[in-house]
């Protein structure tokens, strides 16, 4: 099916929200096929909320997801691939690891992988007109705050530690809440086919990051793609990955 024949979705129907446990809500774009569909993770805090990742950005995010309309939100990019930073410019400030801050400041379609993936194969239906693949561009956020390994994101009653997880990309991060044993893992690991061969992937870094996550006492994992899964499943997946890659 070509871009001309794919159906168009009204903007108010583009996003979907799914409430999970622990004050966490999944926001996603159901018209993007599962392999390409980014998970946006919203965490409710007592003083401010957290949003991890921003999706494609072809439909205004804050305008069409009521959950994001009124609260003070800490916006964090797990890394700078296009499907995770598309709507980052809608927020007052975007936090990202220092190793990829330069990409977020100038998010061209080559370095963000949009040139490689933004085509009909991504979609079951398209955003509303005038969206077209050839015109897809990411707008840089007005303000970028750099994160480093060990930084804490304070929501008032909840604190998430930044864990630098290079491998999928140099500035990939996971967020770890030790009190609830919750891991938001980005694209380093999720319960589906991993992408390990981007232009700035590194397998040695990937293995080190996998081992680091494997050592955490994780109860639940919310990945950058596909459904959430248990800490036990995380351990099995990482052990299998290391064995398969002989790393």
Automatic annotation (TrEMBL):
Q: Which SMART domains match?
A: Lactamase_B (SM00849)
Residues of the Metallo-beta-lactamase domain? 37-225
The cross-references to Gene3D superfamilies, in alphabetical order and at most eight, read: Ribonuclease Z/Hydroxyacylglutathione hydrolase-like
> Which family is this sequence assigned to?
Belongs to the metallo-beta-lactamase superfamily. Class-B beta-lactamase family.
List, alphabetically, the PANTHER family matched.
ACYL-COENZYME A THIOESTERASE MBLAC2 (PTHR42951:SF4), METALLO-BETA-LACTAMASE DOMAIN-CONTAINING (PTHR42951)
| Protein name (record) | MBL fold metallo-hydrolase
- Native species of this protein? Psychrobacter glaciei
Please spell out the taxonomic lineage of the organism that makes this protein: Bacteria, Pseudomonadati, Pseudomonadota, Gammaproteobacteria, Moraxellales
């Amino acid at each position: 099916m070509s871009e001309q024949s794919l159906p168009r979705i009204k903007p108010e129907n583009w996003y979907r929200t799914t409430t999970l446990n622990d004050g966490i809500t999944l926001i996603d774009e159901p018209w993007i096929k599962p392999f390409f569909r980014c998970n946006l993770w919203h965490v409710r805090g007592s003083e401010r909320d957290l949003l991890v990742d921003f999706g494609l950005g072809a439909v205004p995010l804050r305008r069409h997801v009521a959950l994001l309309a009124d609260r003070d939100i800490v916006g964090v990019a797990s890394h700078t691939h296009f499907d995770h930073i598309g709507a980052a410019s809608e927020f007052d400030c975007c936090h990202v690891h220092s190793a990829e801050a330069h990409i977020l400041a100038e998010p061209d379609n080559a370095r963000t992988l949009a040139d490689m993936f933004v085509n009909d194969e991504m979609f079951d239906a398209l955003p509303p007109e005038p969206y077209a693949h050839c015109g897809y561009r990411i707008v840089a956020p007005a303000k970028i705050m750099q994160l480093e390994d060990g930084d804490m994101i304070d929501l008032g009653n909840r604190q998430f530690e930044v864990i630098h997880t290079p491998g999928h990309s140099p500035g990939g991060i996971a967020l770890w809440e030790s009190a609830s044993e919750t891991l938001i893992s980005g694209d380093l690991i999720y319960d589906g086919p991993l992408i390990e061969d981007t232009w700035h992937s590194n397998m040695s870094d990937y293995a080190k990051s996998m081992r680091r996550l494997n050592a955490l006492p994780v109860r639940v994992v919310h990945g950058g793609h596909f459904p959430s899964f248990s800490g036990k499943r995380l351990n099995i997946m990482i052990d299998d990955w290391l064995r398969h890659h002989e790393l």
